[in-house]
DNA sequence: TCGAATTTGTGCGTATGTATC
DNA sequence: GGATACATACGCACAAATTCG
């Protein structure tokens, strides 16, 4: 199977495997071959069996013409009327096909103008590197300046009662007082990140760091601020998922209601005691959270 | 401002702060101002003058009846026929309204049976901890067993030419041969994670690890497999964002087209040389990627 | 076992509104 | 203003899957 640069399709070979913990004792692949036939109908990258659904075919056709370079970023794809003629289908069908590309982020429709191929997006990098806490200054400002953007942020603190979710994450009782701080971060005036932070008021009450963005330790990050009151943050947990934006989030980030956002639920711990938790989110198509992790550490 | 447990609203105080680093004079910030104005007119969250769209109204009505408890998880929402009668609209309109709830993950449609309200999900934890690579065995299997789920996965490898994106991530030339492997992970038979991995064929050609899921080193993870051919993986980069599922992804994960997925783009490095890259994704409402990071490491 | 009723999925052709050029 | 293009909507038809008597 030797080839250097060329890759004729006749030399393409597919390899199928299936594993479960049930047969972990045997490293062999005897049973895998049997199921491969069944699999090939399920997950082939280009198995394409079937569904003669016209709107899917049209969407596939458009997607190929985009990735193939025939339809270029910034250019317009054929109009509904032309696609209707070309494929000989009803207008509702081509409309549905185009809407698929829209949800996939490949195309943007402008009413009265046309449907345009979007340029491949360069997402803003929001660093979550394991060493970001060690350095001084604001990680966000550093990220933005490294990418040629002007960083800014505004905050808003208020004392509230802990909801059930916040209480669970901070290991306190529901209704306990917590300091809630909303951060909205902007790059070149455009909002790119929003965070809502919660700190148990019982922990910071009467200390100089009770208000996260006030006093001499404002903006120093949780690790440094907690150190001021003798609390040593040992580790943090970050759980990343995604959903549609709520009304408040959409307003702060200047996006539409329901637009896809990446959600990061972060909790700081001091020896298994949670000392701060936050919901950090950014538009899914405009920013990404970047982790850089070493491989040579010993586990706990 | 002393209170212990009670928090009357009369004692609530708001604290507002704003910070920026605009002092750093940068060329080009002026043009960004202009575009930001345009932005705010485009995507105002509630500036819209109530387009009274019927399909949105119907979707809102259904959403309210679900969150209000009138329509309970596991139960069926009214059929298309009933909704058309009730709202006096065409069938295509109620169909579209329901499809909105489907992409929001609130409802699941079963052809011939009905549209059912989905139960609120507890997200599966997919560990990305910094130490996961150190241990033997499969991290996914460990995660699932810790959560009482039966893990399994299937894979499919094929040689392909590198796309522009893959080429950039692997620091090779576009069109160079790469080994492409699709992984579909299941927990209790339900797909929860999908990964598409790319390895430069120039790196593994003729070695025992050319096929990731074949031979004595199958399923051992990139770090261990690369060690076999004398390549020491030093660190990895993971960038997390979110978008709507494509057709292939939706099919493999058994979700609907356009449902929100969390996307993790991972690259393994051996001293700044990329040796593997992958797109890992999971349904945004069914799983979350969890990082646990220590605070006491020294930065690079 | 079978078949009819129900329900969702897909598709057609047309009409109207609205934004852009 | 007129032509073009997208957005929404109507009403109907048929196919596929399910349900249930």
TrEMBL record, chains A, B:
It comes from the Bacteria. Residues 26-50 are annotated as: Disordered. InterPro entries: Bact_HTH_transcr_reg, Chorismate_lyase_/UTRA_dom_sf, Tscrpt_reg_HTH_GntR, UTRA, WH-like_DNA-bd_sf, WH_DNA-bd_sf. It holds the Pfam family GntR. Residues 52-120 form the HTH gntR-type domain. One of its GO terms (biological process) is negative regulation of DNA-templated transcription. Keywords: DNA-binding, Transcription, Transcription regulation. Residues 37-48 have a biased composition (Polar residues). SMART domains: HTH_GNTR (SM00345), UTRA (SM00866). GO terms for molecular function: DNA binding; DNA-binding transcription factor activity. This is GntR family transcriptional regulator. It comes from Microbispora oryzae.
